[in-house]
Amino acid sequence: MAYSQTNSKGQQYYLHMKDVTLKGGRLQRIYFFARDVRDGSVEALPAGYVSVENPRTGLLVLKKG
After folding, report:
1. Binning pLDDT at 50, 70 and 90, where does residue 65 land?
2. What was the pLDDT predicted at 15?
3. What angle do CA 58, 63, 65 make, to 5 degrees?
């Protein structure tokens, strides 16, 4: 079951993870929220991160904290 959170506008978002290769060849893991469950869904927030909502758009993002 993917980690989900509902924003202040009542929209439910699911947390996902993806490993991407940067131009220099370095591998970096990114986290993002989507409105549907896709491949790469995450079951819990990663350690050291908190979920924050953009007050203007309602979009959820992860911050280290």
Report:
1. confident
2. 97
3. 130
Among the listed residues 55, 4, 15, 10, the one whose alpha carbon sits nearest the alpha carbon of residue 39: 15
Structure tokens given for 52: 């924050």
Instruction: Give Cα separations from 63 to 3, 15, 23, 24, 32 (angstroms).
Output: 16, 13, 24, 24, 11
Strands, sheet with 27-34, edge to edge from the N-terminal-most edge strand:
4-6, 12-21, 27-34
What whole-number distance in Å separates Cα of residue 22 and Cα of residue 35? 26
Structure confidence by residue, pLDDT tens digits, 21-42: 999 999 999 999 999 999 999 9
A 10 A CB-CB count for 28 gives 9
* Distance in angstroms (rounded) separating the CA atoms of residues 40 and 58: 22
